[in-house]
Amino acid sequence: MGRQPLRVAVLEAERTLAAAGVASPRADAELLAAHVVGVPRGRLMMVPLVDPPVLEEYRALVARRAAREPLQHVLGTAVLGPVTVAVGPGVFTPRPETELLLEWGLKAISGVASPLVVDLCTGSGALALAVAASRPDAEVHAVEADPAALSWARRNVATHADAGGTPVVLHAADVRWPDLLSELESRVDLVLCNPPYVPNGTPVPPEVRVWDPPGAVFGGSDGLVVIRAVVTASAALLRHGGRLAVEHDDTHADAVPELLRRRRVLTDVQEHRDLTGRPRYATARRAGLPSRA
Ligand SMILES: C[S@@+](CC[C@H](N)C(=O)[O-])C[C@H]1O[C@@H](n2cnc3c(N)ncnc32)[C@H](O)[C@@H]1O
Predict the structure, then answer these.
(1) Neighbours of 28 (CB within 10 A)
(2) Considering the chain, what is the average pLDDT of its residues?
């Protein structure tokens, strides 16, 4: 059989993915095609015809996505702001909404030279690496408790360091430990955290239920178990004037700011929504003036 039109295969894939209940069938069909032919999505039109083995490979990837394997697992990578990280079984797939947390954090340290930054619950390392890529002068630490996630994070941290990026310091640790990163106590300019926060028992789509590790998604019966520990750890780690941002469930618009306000040392508590008005993350500042070195 001769070369075949890619456009027809993409339309067929879009129909297959829509029938399987995939939320963005056109985008996924095009991104998978772009991956297989090795061009950016916007240049697919430049590849009118493909060889049968390429089509076969494409259909195999579409079938995995139709079985509701996350797009990023099928591609093998996920993007967060300026970084691309490797993802697969055993690690949480970074989500685009976490870029809001990243943007807020980068603004918070825009006036700080050589900032000290901590990413709690780092998963693949995406958030820590995105800060390191955006602020090469920063010292970035990342904490993760789960061994499977840690091995993905190690791999991503090494890849970015090999490419000349600022190394991220990875800690195999639990945010509930009372002496967490005690060597950084009262010194940190920014803590960022996208913790597990979905209340146990909340229905989630197959991509999450089957592929994201439960310990990365669910945060106890009220979804706040890990967030409570993160607030405690952050209060100890932040310097005077240091900032904290924690992503949370959309049912936590009152609960997380309330947890932050209950800490005497935290002030300037704010709740943030995304462009659709959905509550997404809360921020706070460690009270007191920054001490002069
Ligand atoms: C929602 S995922 C976020 C991963 C990453 N920050 C991101 O945005 O892609 C939460 C991560 O927290 C880790 N985690 C859960 N409980 C933890 C704990 N007590 N201490 C440290 N890490 C924890 C999970 O293993 C998972 O990798």
Answers:
(1) 23
(2) 96
